[in-house]
């Protein structure tokens, strides 16, 4: 007899969950039909840690009390404000603290990194991305090509899923790198694909691409705080990410950047410079000549937005406390439970687009209605009316991301119940 899960089973798993208490350290949005919404949209905007408001208030107080002197005299002096954050950020991407910096926003950082690491030549003019890349990444890449006098038709290579498939086959990507690597100046791929939730083997990609002489950069928007990384050991040239998704640092929060140690002292690399990337010892001598700081800090341009960074302090402290390995273990269990329930109860109507193997995905599952079942958007609207917060990606994908820091097995159970009811009344 096959195992039939029950709601009690989900509650038992929550009771056994050693990370369950972290849920109370976030503000869960209230629901209309239930006390709190079933929030499965941490892949889009993470929830607010309860400590954020106090931290932001402290900065406002220090500004009120100290004015400009707050740069040195506030509780967390603004001048070196970003420095302590590098420790916790480095843990999340598997880097040394001087290989990371929190600055700007994601697309801006992609541009800054491409200024340094996309150096096309006649023999090697191309950028490789994935065909379904997030539009902002594609726009950034296309505009960088144009900036170098190249065009998308000749110099943009795209790796795509096979016809009729959703995810990219790793072997197709590796074969393309082997075949075309000699003409690729930059490989720019995501840690996790935003629409399908597919996770890429960044170590393997880096190894193959670097052996072919390509520069390698990663967009970790959907993988930071979702999967563990070991960027230093894997060896890409750079990586960029945002902090408003799994890092819970708030809407439009400051982004981050990794530059591998081997470039730490590469003063000859072209870069767009600003005073915050200049040597700290001489920055305030206000001289005319730029001297880059060693490490990722040397790519900073402006002094950092303190009010945007304060929430990140709160959030990174939670990651440090919980530990990325433990979070990942819970994440595999939570998403596995979601997959199990969907396959057990709704497989005749729902197709899971995300890879089946846990090593090939993060927490997100992307779902589609099977052909002939009805309109996915109508089902999405119906579950939204019942306080499920997940998101819809055109043309036909519902993304649901149980986040181990604040989601429970009960959330997953309730989500599948509500989805099942919506499908039954479609
Ligand atoms: C994969 C990816 N790249 C780029 C962006 C754009 O980020 P930003 O608006 O911070 O530049 C996003 C935003 O969701 C994203 O998911």
Structure description:
A 7-stranded mixed beta sheet has the order 4-10-9-8-7-5-6, with helices on both faces. The chain is globular, with a radius of gyration of 22 Å. It has helices at 7-15, 52-66, 70-73, 82-93, 106-117, 135-147, 152-155, 170-180, 202-211, 231-234, 306-322, 324-345, 376-385, 409-424, and strands spanning 26-27, 38-39, 48-49, 100-102, 126-130, 156-159, 184-190, 215-219, 238-241, 256-259, 350-352, 365-369, 388-389, 391-393, 397-400. By secondary structure, it is of the alpha/beta class. The longest helix has 22 residues, at 324-345. It binds pyridoxal-5'-phosphate. Pyridoxal-5'-phosphate binds at residues 105-107, 134, 136-137, 190, 194, 219, 221-222, 242, 255. Pyridoxal-5'-phosphate is lined by residues 105-107, 134, 136-137, 190, 194, 219, 221-222, 242, 255.
SS element count, helices: 14
Q: From the structure provided, what is the oligomeric state, counting identical versus distinct chains?
A: single chain
Largest sheet composition: 7 strands, mixed
What low-confidence regions span 5 or more consecutive residues with pLDDT below 50? none
Radius of gyration: 22 Å
Relative strand content: 5-15%
The shape, in one word, is globular
Give a summary of the structure in a few sentences.
The chain is of the alpha/beta class and 426 residues long. The chain contains 14 helices and 15 strands.
